[in-house]
């Protein structure tokens, strides 16, 4: 028996450990017996065991990175939290290491001389300077059939184009392989790919149609009437459309059901874009409003008066995690907004030329603005820096296109290419530094083969996010739950250091009523904390009480004082309160007049008041 | 002069070099490239939790052969497959688990029920019964005659053998220590002035001379056979039905109590249990540690088998079938992958320890994805939906309603006590911690 206990003392029993911890003061440097025992155990283990090389920490973390969570009393929870935060810090450090492994080089354009400007460099010069292979991106598609709109797949490999009069085509633009070419022979207003290049949706004269890669019509979505713009939310598998009637409709393309339709109440809408980082739909309206929509709200999450006159184009910056939004209006201005704080613009400037202005952000944060007969590109740091006044940011690149109007702008993902749709077809221009050089194969791979595409489709269906999880703040998932209203922070045995959350069911009746907002708190007395003060206060009030005024009403109220909200009693109470306030104001005013000083709350305050002599 | 460069993807580094090569992948860990990372991970965790429940098919098979209720199960300490079971009709069966065959069949080993079984070296089996005899059997021999019969004076309730020595102990109205070579007990151990019946007895697994026993008058006692005297004893609120020493923590012992709970005690500090495991809705009849020491199994009068994680006193894994009656004996096999339960219906059932574990060959990719899934569920278990799916277990209706009733009763009792406390003078009656209620008195 004793032998067992002696042997087992290598690991201290819990009770003794606790005592020894209490005895040793924090300043005591001497090693306690428990730490010695720990060392022995550690030594015996460390000889035989080692962590695999791949799992060893690459570098020691600096102090303060790992949170200590000292404020948490529960030891198990604290240990768990410390473990988690050290893991997070470790993986952050590893993330920095991983940046060395990115091999792709971003495009750039730099001028040497002081007086030279990048915008003076034309497309022919860029073509010559970039090399033959890269210059393949510079193309001109001369096409009949009205102004064109275009859309790339997420991996940037395939392009879908649609003309106003119904010419539709999808193709692999790099190899030049045409998937399909259709003459729909009716008005087509927009086109979008679904999850990948194997399906695309076209907003036609009356309905939205879905075609497969070979151009076979698969579905006619009759619930989307007279659509003007289409968006596809890839992680939610939702096809979103807005039409002339002003209805925003969400269709789940994995189950086929029409999820929800919102009546915007702002009339016909021809401007829509999505925020890639939170799947919120941005709409621009005829009255200058920009509204942000989610499927689970019947009204806009944000409503913003951005322009005087119709909004012609909206775009959200993908490089900053959806932080910046650019809008262009028919009033001839382009504005950049901060989506976290809607108070005023970050920048705004006027553009030359008439007609609709188009805006589009690239993956690396370059902003393209098409207005009149030219496309201007502005580069990131200057667009994001707030600047008051109407100053145009420094121009990075400009390119004139004679065939007006310019109707669509699309940057190619993972390329330095901007595709402009106009009345005579499409032209692709080279914008060095616009695209992200390093793609991620798990998200979008331009070089994926058939098998990888199929696997990705299945995986992304499995990972499909439920549409009701779309919110303006995507980080709410996995965040801390808001404190429940049905609990209170009662202190445990009067100790302020350990607030205890008491469940609703265990609260007293008064507290439950208080939380529910049903308690009648009219009898709360100010200054009633200690008995003495309370008594005094009561006496004072008793002395001051004006007898005979409104007595019947007050008596009625006194009788009504129960923990029931009675609308009549509430109204009378409010009335009495109002009368009391008015009387108070009256008295104050009179006093002030008597003193000859105008009251700051009442009447006009003059700057000269300070020179008045007080009597 | 201007310097111009454009993005150029090197195609040769993104397509396989030769046919048959894996396609090269590239990674970019920039969070901007991975929108909805958290939301997607949560969806994955939700799917993982659902898949875990879909594949949860814990029942492997039943070993038949007994005519009456199974009373006791014993595992061979040196073998993964050999299991012995004894029943109320006096029959003993030795099963081979992987072949599901009976290695030895002794239909009339004892008169009356077989109350204890244990394995000894050289594949010998010791059994005892209420017919006052201890019998020693040879497993691999064909004869159904015992090697030896040691007569006792009273009905024997439990037996345990020391590893690698001829000493064993039996429990009747007192604890007898036997030597296999002698026909009479070499010593008796009992507390002075105790009239109890000893119901269970186990040797410590690392310190072989330490012996723990349970008595019918709610006691748990420790003896040292070298001094041949009792060391310590505690009287508890309710009696315990079964005990098991931890295979990894030599000072820790597990008791299955009549009051629906399991308790772990540190034998250095018997005043209160180190942990209470609550979940059963009737008396716990048996318990056994997994050889890893991280989990243990218990079987109860409520017709369920439950698997507990050490240190987590609630929400165990629950196994039940329609035909399984009161579980009287449980075991974890020596490879910790299977759980055995013997019940009143006369069957010994084999269950998986991890309900959704796949039996058979698992490829490394499959294993990696299973590990990923389990860590996802673990990470997102605080999420409402994921946690609910991962936590919820289907219970038979009587068990479910009993557990609801039990919660209601306990809650009512708690409220009543609280009210009583509110209306007595402050400080007069203090709430007592649940752990301190267990042990009534400690004697030595």
From TrEMBL, chain A:
Compartments in which it is found: Nucleus, Nucleolus
Keyword rRNA processing on entry: yes
The protein's name in its UniProt record: U three protein 7
Record Gene3D superfamilies: YVTN repeat-like/Quinoprotein amine dehydrogenase
Organism encoding this protein: Marasmius oreades (fairy-ring Marasmius)
Record's compositionally biased regions (Acidic residues): 522-531
Biased composition annotated in UniProt, kind: Low complexity: 23-35
UniProt feature, compositional bias: Basic and acidic residues: 532-543
From TrEMBL, chain B:
Stretches forming WD repeats: 107-140, 277-318, 320-361
CC per GO annotation: small-subunit processome
Source organism superkingdom: Eukaryota
All residue ranges annotated as the Sof1-like protein domain in the record: 354-439
Main location as per UniProt: nucleus
Annotated spans, Disordered: 9-33, 411-444
Location in or out of the cell: Nucleus, Nucleolus
Alphabetical list of Pfam families matching this protein: Sof1, WD40
Coiled coil stretches, renumbered: none
Alphabetical list of InterPro entries matching this protein: Sof1, WD40/YVTN_repeat-like_dom_sf, WD40_PAC1, WD40_repeat_dom_sf, WD40_rpt, WD_repeat_DCAF13/WDSOF1
SMART domains recorded: WD40 (SM00320)
GO terms for biological process, alphabetical: maturation of SSU-rRNA from tricistronic rRNA transcript (SSU-rRNA, 5.8S rRNA, LSU-rRNA)
Protein family per UniProt: Belongs to the WD repeat DCAF13/WDSOF1 family.
Name of the protein in its database record: Sof1-like protein domain-containing protein
Organism (species): Marasmius oreades (fairy-ring Marasmius)
């Amino acid at each position: 028996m004793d032998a067992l206990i002696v042997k087992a003392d290598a690991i201290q029993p819990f009770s003794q450990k606790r005592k020894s911890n209490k005895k040793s003061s924090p300043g005591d440097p001497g090693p306690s017996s428990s730490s010695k025992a720990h060392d022995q155990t550690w030594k015996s283990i460390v000889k035989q065991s080692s962590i695999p090389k791949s799992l060893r920490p690459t570098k020691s973390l600096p102090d303060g990175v790992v949170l200590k969570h000292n404020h948490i009393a529960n030891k198990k929870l604290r240990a768990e939290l410390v473990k988690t935060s050290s893991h997070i810090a470790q993986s952050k450090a590893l993330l920095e290491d991983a940046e060395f492994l990115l091999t792709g080089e971003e495009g750039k354009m730099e001028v040497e001389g002081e007086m030279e400007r990048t915008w003076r460099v034309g497309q022919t010069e860029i073509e010559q300077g970039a090399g033959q292979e890269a210059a393949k991106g510079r193309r001109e598609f001369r096409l009949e059939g009205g102004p064109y709109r275009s859309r790339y797949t997420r991996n940037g490999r395939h392009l879908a184009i649609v003309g106003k009069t119904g010419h539709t085509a999808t193709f692999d633009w790099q190899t030049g392989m045409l998937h399909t070419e259709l003459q729909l022979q009716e008005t087509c207003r927009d086109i979008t790919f679904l999850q990948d290049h194997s399906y695309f949706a076209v907003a036609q004269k009356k309905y939205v149609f879905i075609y497969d890669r070979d151009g076979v019509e698969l579905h006619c979505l009759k619930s989307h009437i007279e659509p003007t713009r289409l968006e596809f939310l890839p992680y939610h598998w939702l096809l979103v459309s807005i039409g002339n009637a002003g209805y925003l409709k969400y269709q789940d393309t994995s189950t086929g059901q029409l999820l929800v339709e919102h009546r915007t109440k702002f009339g016909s809408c021809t401007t829509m874009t999505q925020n890639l980082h939170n799947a919120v739909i941005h709409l621009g309206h005829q009255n200058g409003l920009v509204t942000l929509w989610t499927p689970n709200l019947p009204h806009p999450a944000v409503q913003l008066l951005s322009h005087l006159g119709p909004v012609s184009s909206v775009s959200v910056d993908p490089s900053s995690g959806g932080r910046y939004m650019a809008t262009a209006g028919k009033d001839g201005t382009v504005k950049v907004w901060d989506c976290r704080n809607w108070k005023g613009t970050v920048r705004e400037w006027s553009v030359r030329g008439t007609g609709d202005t188009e805006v589009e952000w690239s993956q690396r944060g370059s902003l393209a603005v098409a207005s009149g007969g030219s496309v201007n590109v502005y580069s990131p740091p200057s667009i994001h820096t707030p600047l008051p006044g109407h100053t145009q940011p420094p121009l990075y690149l400009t390119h004139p296109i004679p065939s007006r109007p310019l109707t669509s702008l699309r940057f190619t993902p993972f390329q330095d290419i901007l595709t402009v749709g106009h009345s005579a077809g499409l032209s692709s221009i080279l914008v060095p530094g616009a695209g992200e050089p390093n793609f991620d194969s798990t998200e979008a791979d331009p070089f994926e083969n058939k098998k990888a595409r199929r696997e990705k489709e299945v995986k992304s269906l499995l990972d499909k996010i439920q549409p009701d999880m779309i919110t303006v703040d995507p980080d709410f998932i996995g965040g801390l739950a808001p404190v429940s209203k049905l609990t209170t922070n009662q202190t445990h045995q009067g100790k302020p250091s350990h607030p205890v959350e008491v469940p609703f069911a265990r609260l007293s009746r008064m507290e439950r009523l208080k939380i529910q907002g049903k308690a009648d708190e009219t009898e709360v007395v100010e200054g009633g904390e200690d008995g003495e003060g309370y008594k005094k206060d009561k006496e004072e009030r008793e002395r001051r009480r004006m007898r005979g005024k409104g007595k019947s009403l007050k008596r009625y109220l006194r009788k009504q004082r129960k923990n029931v909200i009675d609308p009549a009693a509430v109204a009378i109470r409010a009335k009495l309160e109002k009368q009391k306030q008015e009387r108070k104001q009256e008295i104050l005013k009179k006093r002030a007049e008597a003193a000859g000083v105008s009251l700051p709350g009442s009447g006009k305050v003059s700057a000269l008041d300070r020179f008045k002599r007080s009597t | 002069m201007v310097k111009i460069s454009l993005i150029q993807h090197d195609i040769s580094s993104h397509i396989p070099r030769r046919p048959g090569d894996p396609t090269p992948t590239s990674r970019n860990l920039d969070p901007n490239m991975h929108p909805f990372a958290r939301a997607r991970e949560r969806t994955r965790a939700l799917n993982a939790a659902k898949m875990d429940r879909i594949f949860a098919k814990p029942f492997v098979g039943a070993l038949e052969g007994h005519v009456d209720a199974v009373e006791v199960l014993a595992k061979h300490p040196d073998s993964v497959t050999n299991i012995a079971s004894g029943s109320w009709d006096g029959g003993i069966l030795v099963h081979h688990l992987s072949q599901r065959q009976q290695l030895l069949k002794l239909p009339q080993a004892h008169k009356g029920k077989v109350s204890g079984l244990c394995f000894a070296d050289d594949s010998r089996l010791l059994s005892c019964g209420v017919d006052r005899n201890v019998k020693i059997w040879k497993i691999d021999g064909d004869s159904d005659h015992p090697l030896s019969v040691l007569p006792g004076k009273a009905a024997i309730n439990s037996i345990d053998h020391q590893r690698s020595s001829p000493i064993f102990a039996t429990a009747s109205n007192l604890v007898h220590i036997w030597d296999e070579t002698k026909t009479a007990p070499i010593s008796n151990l009992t507390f002075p002035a105790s009239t109890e019946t000893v119901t269970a007895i186990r040797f410590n697994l690392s310190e072989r001379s330490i012996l723990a026993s349970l008595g019918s008058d709610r006691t748990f006692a420790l003896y040292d056979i070298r001094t041949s005297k009792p060391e310590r004893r505690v009287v508890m609120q309710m009696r315990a039905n079964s005990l098991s020493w931890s295979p990894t923590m030599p000072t820790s012992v597990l008791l299955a109590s009549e009051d629906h709970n399991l308790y772990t005690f540190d034998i250095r500090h018997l005043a209160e249990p180190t942990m209470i495991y609550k979940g059963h809705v009737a008396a716990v009849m048996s318990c056994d540690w997994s050889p890893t020491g991280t989990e243990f199994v218990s079987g109860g009068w409520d017709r369920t088998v439950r698997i507990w994680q050490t240190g987590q006193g609630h929400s165990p894994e629950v196994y039940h079938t329609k035909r399984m009656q009161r579980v009287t004996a449980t075991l974890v096999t020596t490879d910790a992958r299977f759980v055995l339960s013997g019940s009143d219906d006369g069957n010994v059932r084999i269950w998986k320890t991890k309900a959704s574990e796949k039996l058979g060959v698992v490829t490394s990719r499959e294993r990696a994805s299973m590990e990923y899934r389990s860590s996802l569920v673990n990470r997102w278990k605080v999420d409402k939906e994921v946690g609910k799916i991962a936590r919820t277990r289907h219970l038979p209706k009587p068990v479910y309603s009993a557990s609801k009733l039990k919660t209601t009763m306990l809650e009512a009792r708690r409220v009543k006590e609280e009210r009583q406390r509110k209306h007595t003078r402050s400080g007069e009656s203090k709430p007592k911690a649940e752990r301190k209620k267990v042990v009534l008195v400690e004697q030595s």
